[in-house]
């Protein structure tokens, strides 16, 4: 099964950067309008299932009503699930390299006048 996952914050927390210019109700309405637009696109893709993941019941209801699979988010947001990669260079970093070899330094630049 191929899935398009649409994570949606709680309507009370969504679009918080717009707090200076939009009320909480307006931010929630904007979030729902954007969800509807995205679902218009994802539900029209043959062979793909759309999943709406959210802690907000209103968001999940819209997903179900539109024919998506609704999943209640029970865990904290994704950012809290990110853990440091065991091969990351320093504590607290979340990066890492896939594979067993350490990263290689870039090749040294040659002087254009240098003879090989």
Describe this structure in words.
This protein has a domain at 2-76: Spore Coat Polysaccharide Biosynthesis Protein SpsA, Chain A (Alpha-Beta Complex), CATH 3.90.550.10. Helix content is 25%, strand content 15%. It is built from two helices and three strands. It has a three-stranded parallel beta sheet, with helices on one face. Helix 2 (57-66) links the parallel strand 2 (48-54) and strand 3 (69-72). Helix 1 (24-42) runs parallel beside helix 2. The longest helix is centred in the N-terminal third of the chain and has 19 residues, at 24-42. The chain starts with a strand and ends in a 44-residue tail after the last strand.
Anisotropy-based shape: extended
Give the rounded overall mean pLDDT.
79
Question: From the 3D coordinates, which CATH architecture of the domain at 2-76 would you assign?
Answer: Alpha-Beta Complex
Topology as H/E string?
EHEHE
Rg from alpha-carbon coordinates: 22 Å
Write the layout of secondary structure elements.
Layout: E1 2-7, H1 24-42, E2 48-54, H2 57-66, E3 69-72
Parallel strand pairs: 1-2, 2-3
Helix pairs in contact: 1-2
What structural keywords apply?
alpha/beta, 116 residues, 25% helix, 15% strand, Spore Coat Polysaccharide Biosynthesis Protein SpsA, Chain A, 3-stranded parallel beta sheet
Task: Provide a short characterization of the protein structure.
The chain has 116 residues and is an alpha/beta fold. It has two helices and three strands, in the order βαβαβ. It has helices spanning 24-42, 57-66; strands spanning 2-7, 48-54, 69-72.
